[in-house]
Design brief:
The complex is a heterodimer of chains A (113) and B (877). Chain A has 113 residues and is an alpha+beta fold. Chain A has a single domain, classed as Arc Repressor Mutant, subunit A (Orthogonal Bundle), CATH 1.10.10. Helix content of chain A is 58%, strand content 14%. Chain A has a 3-stranded antiparallel β-sheet. In chain A, β2 and β3 form a beta hairpin. Chain B has 4 domains: 71 residues, no CATH class; 194 residues, no CATH class; 175 residues, no CATH class; 197 residues, no CATH class. In chain B, the strands form 3 sheets. In chain B, strands 13, 14, 15, 16, 17, 18, 19 and 20 form an 8-stranded mixed β-sheet that branches. In chain B, strands 2-3-8-5-7-6 form a 6-stranded mixed β-barrel. In chain B, strands 12-21-11-22 form a 4-stranded antiparallel β-sheet. In chain B, β2 and β3 form a beta hairpin. In chain B, α18 crosses α23 and α25 packs parallel to α28. The radius of gyration of chain B is 39 Å and the shape is elongated. The relative contact order of chain B is 0.10. The chains are: A alpha+beta (113), B alpha+beta (877). The interface between A and B is medium-sized, with 24 and 27 residues.
Amino acid sequence: MSPKTDVMQGTLGLMVLKTLETMGPLHGYGIARRVEQISGNLLSVNYGTIYPALLKLEQEGCISSEWGVSDNNRKAKYYKLTRAGRKQLQESAREWEQTKCILERFLALGEES
Amino acid sequence: MKTLRAWIVRLCSLFKRKQQDREFAEEIESHLAMHIEDNLRSGMSPEEARRNAMIKFGGVDKIFEEHRDRRGFRWLSELQRNLCYAARILWKHKALSLIVIGILAFASAANTAVFSVYNFLFIRSFPYPHSERLVYVGTSGGYGGYDSESHYRYREENRSFEAFGSYNPDYRNYSRQGEARTTSILLVTYDFASVFQYQPALGRGFLEKEEGPGEPKVVMLSHSFWQREFGGKVSALGETLKLDGEVHTVVGVLPSNADFPQPADLWVLIQKGQGDTIRGYGRLKEGVSLEQAQQDLTRIHKSMMETRSMNEYLAPPRLQFLREKLFGNVGSTIRKLLIAAGILLLIVCLNIAGIMLARSESRSQEMGIRTALGASRAGIIRQLLTESLLLALPGVLLGLLMGQALLKLIALKLEAPSWVRLTPDIPFLAFCVVLTGATTAFFGLAPALQAARVNVQHSLHEASSRLSASGAKRRGLKMLVVGEVAFAVVLLVGAGLLLRSWQKMLAVDPGFRADHVFTFNIKLPPSTYKGIDDNACFFERFIESLRQLPGVTAASGANVLPLGGYNQFFFDVEGVAPHPAAEPDPAILMRWIFPDYFKTIGVTLVSGRDFNAEDGRAKNSCVAIVDQSFARRYWPGADPIGKHIRIRAEDNWQGQWRKDVGLDRWMTVVGLTRNVAHYGLDRAIEPGVYIPYNKWRSSQMYILVRSTVDPAGIVGPIRSQLHKLDPDVGIFFPMTMTEVVKRSTLVRRVLSIVMMLFAVAALLIAVAGVYGVVNYTVSRRTHEIGIRMALGATRGQILSMVAGGGARLMIVGAILGVAGAFAASQAMRNMLFGITALDVPTYFIVGAVLIGAVAAATLLPARRAANIEPMRALRSE
């Protein structure tokens, strides 16, 4: 499985949350673009897959949505981070940090021996 | 928390699917539009911009589906969809659905009703606090009880009970302002109510000090008696009433649920020194087992008997849990009924499975198309099971209601006391849920699996060729029918054996002529009638006055009626050595009778003479009459007249009385009568002895009147005769002997009728199954039959081909059924009477009925097949 197509739901969710934190309220298309950009095109997903992920986050109360108008005067659904989402983001980020540290140490160990 | 929130949101979304679909479509549209705009800006051609946006997005339909799944619950929305679809399908086949629901309701009614009874008897707790610790205290040897001294010793010295009380049901002549009536009472010790924690509805309960001899006599009114006699007024408290001539004061009213151990108008307190045969109920202390309590009371009993003379000896106590005491003997019967009801349900399920299978045949195209369009096997199975559930649910529900209504009717008719609770409870509902699930799985699963095995190509192809049904499906159908027939045979044989037993029992010669005999009990108040002579004098005069009534041909009295229970003694027979101790002599039924008893009840005197008035009056003449069973046992082949018998002394607990009335002497046998089936028409006949009434010390006596007119017409004159002699004496238990006999056969009658109903229903359903399958086969084979006929087959050949198919199913089913019935009838051997489990007529009749029924069920469709017009059949393609 190439990393270009397979994105775990959990990581995608975290990316969405982070995007919304830095960018403020944004529509699905914008979020998808942003995720692609930030990942430096290393991680390319079908834009469509962002929507089930958004729905899941919304159901969990991490984000909320509202119809609004885009820069180009087009009707679009805007997602924004809720307080619960902010907390969730912090927690997930910390967890990732930990995981990363552990893995790094493991891998470093492997190189030494 | 988060997950829970998500679940709730998803659940809610079920109800706004359309709106959400629309909204998401809009969102995708806006997404694509923005992407296209961006692409255009970066210099793509409009076409390319659009293409690129679409590709980047991924499959719209797939995302849409994923989004939808994510929104609600996949299985829930599928269930919803399945339910809607199933409802539509079932509605389309209204008639068939109604039939299925109807027969299922019938079988469920039988099952839920029988289970309700079973639940009440063996699972449900009694409506008293800690009822699982309630224990009945009787005496070993079955009947009788202990005396009041035992009660006080048990109460004071036991270490096992937290509450203990004794009681004895009895009857009293009751008078309060005017004419005497009879009333049922419960003699109780003061603490009896505490065992069941009955709280007085009004006033107070009995006090311990009121048990002292010489204290004023007190009673409590039952709730219904209070309503009936005192209009439910509070002023009833403190009123007085006369029981057998003695004044009693009302101190309280019992709650309306105080009808256990048995309903009575009044509770009367037993005072010290009263009460000779009482029984008890106790509530065990927590953690005390029945065995420990048994040992405890046995210990007290033993220490008590050490100081008593032989004459005062009492049988040791025997303890039983409430359930065992009340229902110990009906357990096997009700379990058999439960099994029978289960078999009925099984047949119904087989039948419905057949219907579903046949229908799934006609739907195989639909299944083929669904599979071709990507429906999964599991999906199809789920769909079909949903349909089955939709049939099972209303069926069971309807049956539940029918069963409950039926029980209510029966309970009302039998005047069931309040502690008989047949209403639904948790185990009952659990049973219904299991029933629904089991039936659904049972009749739904096979057709569902069958349908899911559909071969797409084959079934789509079949649509055009429409040849006969697939072999597997037909085999399945046939197996179902064979099963139905087999189970129906088991039920039919079971019911047949019971019916034959009942019939045999009714044909038993009871030894007496029950018709035109009216009986009742009278009880003389001991305050007026002091001793045997007073009693005898009154009874003599009363019976003599009855003989004068118009329409009365004979009248007499006896202490026990035929079929009226135990009154047994051990006897010595002159010249016959007593049995060794290891093998005791039989207890002999003894009856005290008035002259003309045999003529009145219709027992034939074989030889010798009846008692006369002289036998009754003479103090020192000792005569007896024995029955043939007695004579055959002790003097086989010899004439019993002139032989001598005597009540055995050492076993007799009433030694003084025995001496007083002169029963310690040898008695001369003066007459020989035919046997009477005293213990029940279906029980063995035991030896019995009659002796004159003047040796009877009790103040109670059954009076018998044989008349040429309807008993209802002579009750009035009898009452007025009694009133003339003594206005304080009333009539108890007025009944005709015919009713007595009928009542003794009640259990067998009810059981036979219920089993017969089950069996007939089973037969009808099985026959419907055979009919259905044969009919179905004919309609599937119309084309084939057309070809056969075109090729020269005669109508007769077609007829025998089709009917033969049905007959084969029946024969296989019948053989299996008979094998099953053999096994089943062994298990019910103890319920049979007068026949063996291999009763040939029963099997013969069942066979005949089955052949007739199946012939009818196969010939109709077979004739239809034979009448097929070959040309039309071929064109029907």
